[in-house]
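W.,

You were right to be curious about this one. When I first looked at the sequence I had no strong expectations either way, so I just let the prediction run and decided to look at it fresh. Below is the sequence, 407 residues in total, followed by the output.
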Amino acid sequence: MGVAVIAKHILSRKNHYKCFLLVVLLSAIYLIDGLPFLKKIVESTFLFSYVLKPALWVCLALIVLYFAKVKPVGKLRFKSYLNSLAFVCAVSYILLMIMGGFLDGFGKSPYSFTPFAIIMNVILVGSTLGGQELARAYLINNLSAKRPFLIISIVSLFFTFINITTAQLLQFKSLSEVAKLAGQNIFPLFSENLLTSYFAYLGGPVTALIYKGTLQAYQWFCPILPNLGWMSKTFLGTFVPFISLIIVQNLYLYESREVKRHSRDKESTLGWILTSVAAVVIVWFAVGLFPIYPQVIATGSMEPLIKPGDVVLAKKIKGQEAKLGDIIHFRHLENKIYIVHRVVDVKTEKGKGQLFQTQGDNNSSADSKLVEPQQIKGKVIQVIPKIGWPTLYLRSEGDPNTDNVEI
């Protein structure tokens, strides 16, 4: 008995070392893909994307296959059932995106469809999927014995970030860009990875590959794709995979007669749903999808009322609705930046109609350019002190000169 326990402990430690090695290798591939100097060394985007990257993923897949095989949690007799569920979930997601396309429009795929390009993309996508899904299934089914949902969530978060490019993570310069990255990329990717990880947990890498591979095949090899707007992309990308996860979980528990044993998970599931809804609503608010939206103030031209690092809440208005004394949020036509200044005069010019003279409360003179109604986005209705400082720290040094404007 004691020997068996010791052997089990040693085997468990070895598996943990293997999992750590996989995480290191996945992180290394992510960094290699994001480091520009390596692409310069290779001196060919084609060689880097279609030779080096597939080779790295194939090597990772071979390493996972070399490790001892780990059985998924799902019962063997439900293997084909789980594979069917994975395919149905992927097709349903695609059909919902197509329905969204009928509302938002369609566009041409950015990928080439010559025979050579298709073959190269099959190699790239296939090797990436194979390496990632074998690694995902190995990690989840080795580490999820005690707290499966926690491990599934952590692994899903990890795979979310290794599928976001370093350029995307470093390019944002404002709160709205951070929120847009979260809404368009992070939340949908995390939701999709959560469902993929659950399929890997129940059915292993093949089931996960069926789901993820079907989605990737549609994205890479369909010549016409839905040109989804911001709201549609965030909503569909976040909620469809998450709701599919809940449905798959309940269907599997019902089929395997484990519903009673897992009834205690209902409150946890509801909590995840409410958290996801709240997160998406916050993102939509941050990027201005609601009538009232936030904006971070960068400089001090509206002091003492509005200081750098404050966040103002602005209400969307038509340009003609602005009045004398209003603090308006408008776009500077030359610098392509947004400014928060007070309306100090309303003028009428022949051929242009109503124009607005603006000035910062802390500025000695009025702004040099009059503001046209179509430049106005909203009117400030509330000031929240200091909560915008984290966003200011994220701004890069290459922003336009904002010495005398509020952004």
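Here's what jumped out at me. Confidence is low (pLDDT under 50) at residues 1-11, 259-264, 396-407. And, maybe more interesting for your project: DSSP finds twelve helices and eight strands in the chain.

Coffee later to discuss?

I.
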